[in-house]
Amino acid sequence: MAMLRAATRLSRAFRTNSIFESHASPLSLSSVTVKRLDLRCLLSTAAEAVAEPIKPDISISLTKLLIDGKFVDAASVGKTFPTIDPRTEEIIAHVAEGDVEDVNRAVKAARRAFDKGPWPKMTPYERSKILLRFADLIDKHSDELATLESLDSGKTYQQSRYAEIPTMARLFRYYAGWADKIHGLTVPADGPHSVQILHEPIGVAGQIIPWNFPLLMFSWKVGPALACGNTIVLKTAEQTPLSALLAGKLLYEAGLPEGVLNIISGYGHTAGAAISSHMDIDKLAFTGSTEVGKIVSQAAAASNLKPVTLELGGKSPFIIAEDANIDHAVEVAHFALFFNQGQCCCAGSRTFVHESIYDEFLEKAKARALKRVVGDPFQNGVEQGPQVSDEQFDKVLGYIKIGQEEGARLLTGGDRFGQKGYYIKPTIFADVQDGMRISREEIFGPVQAITKYKTLSEVIQRANDTTYGLAAGVFSKNIDTVNTLSRALRVGTVWVNCYDVFDAAIPFGGYKMSGHGREKGIYSLNNYLQVKAVVTSIKDPAWL
Ligand code: NAI
Ligand code: MG
After folding, report:
1. Alpha-carbon distance 136 to 158, whole Å?
2. How far is ligand 1, taken at its centre, from the CA of residue 202, in Å?
3. Of 216, 221, 289, which is best to mutate to test ligand 1, by the most ligand atoms within 8 angstroms of its C-beta?
4. Which residue, 63, 131, 333, 380, has fewest beta-carbon neighbours within 10 Å?
5. Angle CA(224)–CA(228)–CA(231) in degrees, nearest 5?
6. What is the whole-number distance in angstroms between the Cα of residue 220 and the centre of ligand 1?
């Protein structure tokens, strides 16, 4: 019976809250997919922390660096680092550790593939077909990709397999569609001149990605860069190096010419720093902490002034007006914060509830958190796995302690879950004050902070009183409230009566210290294109 309830909850969460793709999309979590999810849940038994961890059916074969189309050892031969299973705190595999010399080799390969190689010279249609073949291979290998993704990061297998991997394939199909539709302009100018505005690929892109959505971050960066005809040196996060290596292998299987995509596993202060300061990299894209976003921007400026796009942290407000459907708002606010173990840049981490519904909301939010199924992410029906690493586990528990010391009211949770693995109980603080650190700093874990408000102008001022500006949620049936809030909030995305809708076509990015530039959609193409004006003098023009 408990499992039946868990299954219903999960399918309802996927159906009603959104998830990555809009429901109009042919690849969205359609009712067919949801039925499969339900079935998988129903077959399972109750979830528990990892006493006897489930052994996923996979052998780890790709652990080397991917340079110039080949899997190779690190330049300092034998140099590796361990990647950890967050369920057990045990080593999954030792992975080749890339450093400065490996980045140099990768840049050389990417440079050659751009300057002399076939990629930018290929017709856009040919590039498009390779991206489409890759999307088909993602579908074909989705079990394997999802297993690696969950093993390395701790996210649930169901989320990887049924939400993230299909979204990845969808995104590559979206950018495959753009590849042969990128074109410049001809513009009129004063005088006898023909003016062409060319949109050229920018060159070698350096891309540094985090661990919370390893394959989706891979896709957001690699998809548009390849569609525009660029070559790439990508560094994965040291916590989650495995899945991108398989994705890279599949891209070459799809027909990518040698050297077009190079993948370096390794640490930030070594391999990451080498990328951001490299003189032969033409563009840098980074997703991660605001702190490191500033460091890589400085390195980019101090080296060759390469342009930088940044997708950084957030402290996103989730505002629930007095007229909102409370049950729906409770469910979506829960999803907005706890999804992916709370490890989302856009997590709805400041829940503002109108005072007239505050007490009822607290009671229901607590009941929902208590029902959240925490356990082995490979167990069907589990909603929440472990945090990604010991560092994140300690950081989140540290913030829970800070919240208690600051005087916020702990409604539920507040502790680790089980004895082994980086599991944390779903935690809620009520009566959170704006000045508290748990209201100002990114916790990046399963900790919901709820506060009450009285008026619309008050909540606008408080919601915007942050250094971040990534996203916001608005829950209301009143069109005036919705319109006022969605224009007043200084954030890159406003989700109204939904949350975390991540369609390939919708741009994503932040205001203020949440970064600059936009990923996904048509906007991401601009990050990977140069604009060149070619002005030709015309003799005897028939018209101007
Ligand atoms: P981080 O910003 O250190 O790591 C993100 C990426 O940057 C990784 O690939 C890392 O190796 C690389 N990196 C680190 N230092 C670098 C350097 N000096 N030069 C170049 N690259 C470097 O994030 P971390 O330490 O994993 O997490 C810390 C906090 O950052 C989290 O608790 C969370 O608050 C936030 N974060 C935000 C993310 C987002 O989606 N915006 C993703 C991951 C973390
Ligand atoms: Mg760091």
Report:
1. 20
2. 25
3. 289
4. 63
5. 85
6. 16
Shortest-distance atom of ligand 1 to CA 291: 2
pLDDT at 519 over 70: yes
- Residue 190 has a pLDDT of 93
Say what percent of the chain tops pLDDT 70.
91
Counting ligand 1 atoms within 8 A of each CB, the residue from 95, 155, 208, 217 with the most, and so the one to mutate, is: 208
Beta strand pairing call for 515-516 and 308-311? antiparallel
Contacts of 360 (CB under 8 A, 6+ apart): 326
Measured CA to CA, the distance from residue 117 to residue 517 in angstroms comes to 29
pLDDT at 52: 86
Catalytic residues: 311
Is it the case that residue 223 has pLDDT exceeding 80? yes
User: Hey, whose CA ends up nearest to atom 11 of ligand 1?
Assistant: 268
Strands 90-96 and 80-85: antiparallel
Residue nearest to atom 9 of ligand 1 (CA): 237
pTM for the model stands at 0.93
Within the chain, what is the greatest distance between any pair of CA atoms? 84
Q: Which residue carries 């906007």 as its tokens?
A: 523
**Ligand 1 environment, Cβ below 6 A:** 208-212, 235, 237-238, 267-269, 272-273, 276, 287-289, 292, 295-296, 311-313, 345, 392, 395, 442, 444
What does the alpha-carbon distance between residue 84 and residue 387 come to, in Å, rounded to a whole number? 12
How remote is the CA of residue 308 from the centroid of ligand 1, in Å? 16
Closest ligand to the CA of 266: 1
Q: pLDDT by residue (tens digit) across 489-516?
A: 999 999 999 999 999 999 999 999 999 9
Mean pLDDT for the chain? 92
- Cα 493 from Cα 451, distance rounded (Å): 21
What backbone torsions phi and psi does residue 257 show, to the nearest 5 degrees? Answer: -65, 155
Q: How confident is the model at residue 194 (pLDDT cuts 50, 70, 90)?
A: very high
In the reported structure, the alpha carbon of residue 60 is separated from the centroid of ligand 1 by a whole-number distance in angstroms of 25
Residue nearest to atom 29 of ligand 1 (CA): 289
